[in-house]
C-alpha cells in the first residue's frame, strides 16, 4: 500500500477536491456485465469491465468498503504486486490500452446503515448510487463522465420474488437451493450513479403511456402490498409529467418501461436512476386518509422532478459533480413549472420563493454559503443543497423569462440536440441556450460561480412638471472569505407602475426597458436588467404620481431594499394585479414590523381590507397572504446579537394582533367552511388549508368554543389535512383533551409509518414543547434510528422553534445526534448539524456556549460529511 502525503488534506485527513483540477478520464468503459448474488449475511458482486484507453495515465477504479476476492486483467489473475490499493481506489500503472477486467468482491448490504451503495431496508435490498455509491458495490471508475452499457444479473432466494435493474428484462430463471435470477439489459449508456437494483417482495401497480411518437411504455410502481392502493396519485402524476414534457419541451420518454420503487429508508426524496427510480415512501405514497394536501402535492412534484431528470440529468448528465446544478437547477425549474399547472401560478411562485428565502437565503448568509457551482468540496454529499437546487432553478428561470417561451424552447431544443448522450458543463447549457435562441446569455454565467445573495437597493422620484418617474437601482453582494471581490450580476427586475390615486396600472414608456423581450411584448409588465453597480431608468409620460412595484414575480433571487413608505407597500398589497406581488408586499411590510420595529397598524389595516375578498376568490392564496415570516427566516436576517426569545415574542405579538383584529371574521369564516367530501383539486385544497388557518387564529383570538371546533374537526375529519390540522391546534394550545387526541391518533395510525411520522412531528414541533419532549420521542419504541424520515420528523420539526434549539440542551441535542449518526449515517448527520450553522449570530453568553459545544464535537466525529460541515460551521 502506498499512500502519498497530500498537502491538501485537512485536519481530519480528508482531501479537498477542486473544480480547476478536473482531468478527463484516461480510460473509457465500453460495457459492464454485473452479477449480484444476494445471501442473508453477505452479497457477492462479480463484474466484467471492458475498458479502452483514451489518453495516457493510470487506470483508476474507485472502491470503498469492498472485500476484494479476486481480480484478473485480460485473463490473467492479478496479485497485490500488480496494483496499488488504498481505502478509496485501486490503481494500475502501465495498463494495456485494451483492458478487460473480471473482478469479484464481497459486500454487506445487510449491515449497511449509511444508505449508500446496496443496502437492506427491512425486507428489501435497494441501491443509492448518486453521487458516489457505486464504488461501494464494485470497483469501477465511479465518475459521471464515464458512461457505459450495463447488463445486470441479479440472483437471490425466492423469498425475494422481485428482482429489478435498469432497462429491459432479457432473461429469468430458477436455480437450485430455492434461488432464482433475472438478467436486465439497459440499452442506453449511463454513468454508474444512475445504476439501480432492487431485490425484495413487492406488489406492483401497472399502467401505460403512449408517447407522442406512438410508442407504448409500460409504467410500474412497486411497493409493499399494503401500500399499493396509495400509488394511484403518483401514477397519474407520472402520466401527467410524461405528457407535459412532450408538450412543453418536446421530449418523449425513450425506454419501453418506467419503474418506480417505494422504500421507507432513504436519505433524500427520490432518485432518478435510469428507468428505475427509487423513491422515499413519503414522495410516492399518497392517500387522503393518511396524507395531508401539501404532502400529496409534494408527491406529484417529486414524481415530476424525477421523471424530468430523464432528459435533464440522465440523457444529458454532468461532466463532474461540481456541475450538479446543471441537472438539478434546471430540473427543479422544470418541476416548478409543471406544478404551476396543479395550482394557481401565484401560489406556486409564493411557495417556491418562500422556501428559497427561508432556506437558500439563510444558507447563503452563513458559513455554509457556496456558489450554485462550487469550486471545491471535501464531500460532494454535502452539496445537495438549497443553493445548488433552488438558486440553480432561479438562474434557469431568469434566463427562461428573458427569452420568453418561444426562444427558450429554441434554446433547450439546441441543448438536447447538441448534447444528448453526453456529460457536460454549465457553460454547455448556457452556450446552447444562447446559440439556439440567438440571445447571448453568457453574462449569466457568473451567477453560477459567485456566492451570496445580491441586495438591490433603490429609490424613485416623480417629477410632476416633466411627467417623469426616475428609478435608481444599485446592487451589492457581501464578499465571502476565499472568494474574489463580487462582481455586478445581470439582475432582471420586474417593474410595473400604478397610479397612486386610482390604483390603476400604467403603461410603461422607457427605452431602457427595451432590453427585454418581454417588455416589448407587454409594455405594462416590464423587465429591466440591472447589470451594473448602479443604473437609472427614466419613465416618461407618467401623468400622475405612481407607486412602483419591483421584482415582480420574484424576477431574480435577490434581496430588495427600496425606499417605500409603509403606506406604499400597503397600497401594493391592495392594488397589485397578481397574488405573488401582493404576498411580496405583505412580506416586506411584515419584515419592517418584525425586524425594524415599524408600527404594525399599516399591515393590519391592509390585510384586514384585502383578506376577505382574496379568501372568497382563492382560499389558498388567502392562507399565503396570512404567512408571517418564520422565526428562522427572521433569524437569517439578523447577523449579530440575535436573541431568539425577542424574535419569538415579536412574532407572537403580530400573530396576536392579527388574531384580535379579525376576531369576528375568523368565527364567521370558520363556520362558513363546513367539512365536505374529499376532493383532490386546488380549490378544495385551498378551503381545507384556509379552514385550518382560520381555526388557528380563532383559537388565538380566544373565540369562544374554538377549541371545541378543533375537537369536532378532529373527530369528523374526512382526510388527514383536517385531522392533523385540528390535532396540531389542540396540542400546541394545550387543550384539555390534547393527550386523548394524540393517543387516538396513535391508535388509528400505528401501522401507517408516514402518518406516525406526523404524530412525532406534531409533538416535536410544538412551540410549547421542550428538549425533554424531543428526547423522549426519540426513546419511543416506534422511534427508529435506521429510518431517516422518522429522525427528520423529530429533528426537523423541533428546529422550527429556535427558542428551544438555542439553549444548552437544544444545542447538545443536535450535536449528540450528529455524533451518533457520524458513522451510522453521515449524510444525514451532516444535514442535522447544519441546524446549528448560525450559532455565531447569537448574543452572548449563548454564542460562546454554542462555540464550546461545537468545538467539543470536533474530536468526536470522523466522517468526511460531518467533519466538513463542522469545520465550515466553526469557521464562521
Ligand atoms: N438526484 C436526486 C437527489 C438525491 C441525491 C442523493 C441521494 O442519496 C444520497 C439521493 C437522491 C434528485 O435530485 O432527486
Ligand atoms: Zn434532482
TrEMBL record:
Transmembrane segments: none
GO BP: any one term: proteolysis
UniProt-listed Enzyme Commission number(s): 3.4.11.2
UniProt xrefs under Pfam families: DUF3458 (PF11940), DUF3458_C (PF17432), Peptidase_M1 (PF01433), Peptidase_M1_N (PF17900)
Keyword Lipoprotein included in the entry's annotation: no
Sequence ranges assigned to domain Peptidase M1 membrane alanine aminopeptidase in this UniProt record: 234-445
GO function term, MF aspect, one: metallopeptidase activity
Keyword Metal-binding: yes
Domain Aminopeptidase N-like N-terminal as annotated: residue spans: 89-194
Catalysis: reaction(s): Release of an N-terminal amino acid, Xaa-|-Yaa- from a peptide, amide or arylamide. Xaa is preferably Ala, but may be most amino acids including Pro (slow action). When a terminal hydrophobic residue is followed by a prolyl residue, the two may be released as an intact Xaa-Pro dipeptide
Residue ranges constituting the Peptidase M1 alanyl aminopeptidase C-terminal domain according to the UniProt record: 566-874
InterPro entries: Aminopeptidase_N-like_N (IPR045357), Aminopeptidase_N-like_N_sf (IPR042097), PepN_Ig-like_sf (IPR038438), Peptidase_M1 (IPR001930), Peptidase_M1_dom (IPR014782), Peptidase_M1_pepN (IPR012779), Peptidase_M1_pepN_C (IPR024601), Peptidase_M1_pepN_C_sf (IPR037144)
Coiled-coil ranges per UniProt: none
Cofactors (names): Zn(2+)
This protein's UniProt keywords: Aminopeptidase, Hydrolase, Metal-binding, Metalloprotease, Protease, Zinc
Residue span(s) of domain Peptidase M1 alanyl aminopeptidase Ig-like fold: 452-562
Assigned protein family: Belongs to the peptidase M1 family.
NCBIfam families per the UniProt record, alphabetical: pepN_proteo (TIGR02414)
Record protein name field: Aminopeptidase N
Species: Alkanindiges illinoisensis
Amino acid at each position: 500500500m502506498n499512500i502519498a502525503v497530500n498537502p491538501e488534506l485537512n485536519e481530519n485527513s480528508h482531501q479537498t477536491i477542486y473544480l480547476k483540477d478536473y482531468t478527463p478520464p484516461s480510460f473509457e468503459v465500453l460495457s459492464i456485465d454485473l452479477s449480484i448474488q444476494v445471501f442473508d449475511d453477505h452479497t457477492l458482486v462479480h463484474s466484467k469491465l471492458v475498458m479502452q484507453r483514451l489518453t495516457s495515465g493510470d487506470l483508476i477504479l474507485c472502491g470503498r468498503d469492498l472485500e476484494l476476492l479476486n481480480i484478473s486483467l485480460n485473463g490473467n489473475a492479478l496479485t497485490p504486486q500488480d496494483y496499488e490499493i488504498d481505502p478509496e481506489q485501486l490503481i494500475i500503472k502501465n495498463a494495456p490500452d485494451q483492458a478487460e477486467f473480471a473482478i469479484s468482491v464481497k459486500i454487506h448490504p445487510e449491515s449497511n446503515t449509511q444508505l449508500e451503495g446496496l443496502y437492506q431496508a427491512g425486507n428489501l435490498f435497494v441501491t443509492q448510487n448518486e453521487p458516489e455509491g457505486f464504488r461501494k458495490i464494485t470497483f469501477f471508475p465511479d465518475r459521471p463522465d464515464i458512461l457505459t452499457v450495463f447488463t445486470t444479473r441479479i440472483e437471490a432466494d425466492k423469498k425475494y420474488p422481485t428482482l429489478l435493474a435498469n432497462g429491459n428484462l432479457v432473461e429469468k430463471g430458477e436455480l437450485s437451493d430455492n434461488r432464482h435470477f433475472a438478467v436486465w439489459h439497459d440499452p442506453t449508456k449511463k454513468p454508474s450513479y444512475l445504476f439501480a437494483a432492487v431485490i425484495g417482495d413487492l406488489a406492483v401497480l401497472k399502467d401505460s403511456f403512449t408517447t407522442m411518437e406512438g410508442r407504448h411504455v409500460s409504467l410500474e410502481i412497486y411497493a409493499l402490498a399494503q401500500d399499493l392502493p396509495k400509488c394511484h396519485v403518483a401514477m397519474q402524476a407520472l402520466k401527467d409529467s410524461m405528457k407535459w414534457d412532450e408538450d412543453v419541451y418536446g421530449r418523449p420518454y425513450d425506454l419501453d418501461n418506467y419503474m418506480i420503487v417505494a422504500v421507507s429508508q432513504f436519505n433524500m426524496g427520490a432518485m432518478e436512476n435510469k428507468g428505475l427510480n427509487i423513491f422515499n415512501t413519503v414522495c410516492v405514497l399518497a392517500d387522503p386518509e393518511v396524507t395531508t394536501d401539501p404532502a400529496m402535492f409534494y408527491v406529484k412534484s417529486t414524481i415530476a422532478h424525477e421523471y424530468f431528470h430523464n432528459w435533464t440529468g440522465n440523457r444529458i448528465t454532468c461532466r463532474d459533480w461540481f456541475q450538479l446544478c446543471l441537472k438539478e437547477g434546471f430540473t427543479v425549474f422544470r418541476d416548478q413549472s409543471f406544478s404551476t399547472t396543479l395550482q394557481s401560478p401565484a401560489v406556486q411562485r409564493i411557495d417556491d420563493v418562500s422556501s428559497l428565502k427561508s432556506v437558500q437565503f439563510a444558507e447563503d448568509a452563513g458559513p455554509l454559503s457556496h456558489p450554485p457551482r462550487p469550486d471545491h468540496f471535501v464531500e460532494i454529499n454535502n452539496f445537495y443543497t438549497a443553493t445548488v437546487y433552488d438558486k440553480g432553478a432561479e438562474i434557469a428561470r431568469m434566463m427562461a423569462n428573458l427569452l420568453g417561451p418561444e426562444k427558450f424552447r429554441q434554446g433547450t431544443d439546441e441543448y438536447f440536440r447538441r448534447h444528448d448522450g453526453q456529460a457536460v458543463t454549465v457553460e454547455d447549457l448556457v452556450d446552447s441556450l444562447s446559440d439556439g435562441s440567438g440571445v447571448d446569455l453568457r453574462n449569466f454565467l457568473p451567477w453560477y460561480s459567485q456566492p451570496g445573495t445580491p441586495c438591490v437597493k433603490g429609490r424613485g422620484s416623480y417629477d410632476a412638471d416633466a411627467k417623469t418617474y426616475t428609478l435608481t437601482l444599485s446592487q451589492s453582494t457581501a464578499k465571502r472569505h476565499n472568494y474574489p471581490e463580487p462582481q455586478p450580476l445581470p439582475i432582471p427586475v420586474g417593474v410595473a407602475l400604478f397610479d397612486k390615486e386610482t390604483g390603476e396600472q400604467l403603461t410603461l414608456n422607457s427605452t431602457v426597458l427595451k432590453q427585454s423581450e418581454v417588455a416589448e411584448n407587454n409594455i405594462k409588465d416590464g423587465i429591466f436588467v440591472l447589470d451594473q453597480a448602479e443604473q437609472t431608468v427614466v419613465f416618461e409620460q407618467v401623468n400622475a404620481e405612481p407607486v412602483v412595484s419591483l421584482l415582480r414575480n420574484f424576477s431574480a433571487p435577490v434581496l430588495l431594499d427600496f425606499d417605500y413608505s409603509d403606506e406604499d407597500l400597503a397600497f401594493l398589497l391592495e392594488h397589485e394585479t397578481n397574488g405573488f406581488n401582493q404576498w411580496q408586499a405583505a412580506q416586506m411590510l411584515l419584515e419592517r414590523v418584525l425586524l425594524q420595529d415599524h408600527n404594525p397598524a399599516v399591515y393590519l389595516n391592509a390585510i384586514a381590507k384585502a383578506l376577505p375578498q382574496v379568501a372568497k376568490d382563492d382560499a389558498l392564496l388567502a392562507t399565503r397572504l396570512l404567512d408571517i415570516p418564520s422565526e428562522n427566516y427572521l433569524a437569517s436576517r439578523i447577523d449579530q446579537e440575535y436573541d431568539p426569545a425577542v424574535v419569538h415574542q415579536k412574532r407572537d405579538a403580530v400573530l396576536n394582533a392579527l388574531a384580535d383584529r379579525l376576531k369576528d371574521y375568523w368565527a364567521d369564516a370558520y363556520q362558513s367552511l363546513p367539512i365536505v367530501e374529499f376532493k383532490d383539486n386546488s380549490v378544495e385544497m385551498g378551503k381545507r388549508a384556509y379552514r385550518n388557518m382560520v381555526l388557528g387564529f380563532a383559537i388565538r383570538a380566544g373565540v369562544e368554543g374554538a377549541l371545541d371546533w378543533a375537537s369536532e374537526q378532529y373527530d369528523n375529519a374526512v382526510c388527514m389535512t383536517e385531522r392533523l390540522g385540528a390535532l396540531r391546534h389542540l396540542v400546541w394550545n394545550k387543550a384539555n383533551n390534547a393527550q386523548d387526541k394524540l393517543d387516538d391518533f396513535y391508535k388509528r395510525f400505528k401501522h401507517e409509518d408516514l402518518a406516525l411520522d406526523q404524530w412525532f412531528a406534531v409533538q416535536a414541533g410544538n412551540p410549547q414543547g421542550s428538549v425533554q419532549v424531543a428526547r423522549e420521542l426519540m426513546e419511543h419504541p416506534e422511534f427508529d434510528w435506521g429510518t431517516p424520515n422518522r429522525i427528520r420528523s423529530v429533528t426537523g420539526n423541533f428546529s422550527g422553534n429556535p427558542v428551544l434549539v438555542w439553549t444548552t440542551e437544544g444545542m447538545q441535542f443536535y450535536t449528540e445526534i450528529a455524533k451518533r449518526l457520524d458513522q451510522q449515517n453521515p449524510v444525514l448527520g451532516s444535514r442535522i448539524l447544519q441546524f446549528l450553522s448560525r450559532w455565531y449570530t447569537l448574543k452572548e453568553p449563548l454564542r460562546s456556549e454554542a462555540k464550546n459545544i461545537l468545538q467539543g464535537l470536533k474530536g468526536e466525529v470522523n466522517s468526511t460529511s460531518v467533519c466538513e460541515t463542522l469545520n465550515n460551521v466553526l469557521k464562521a
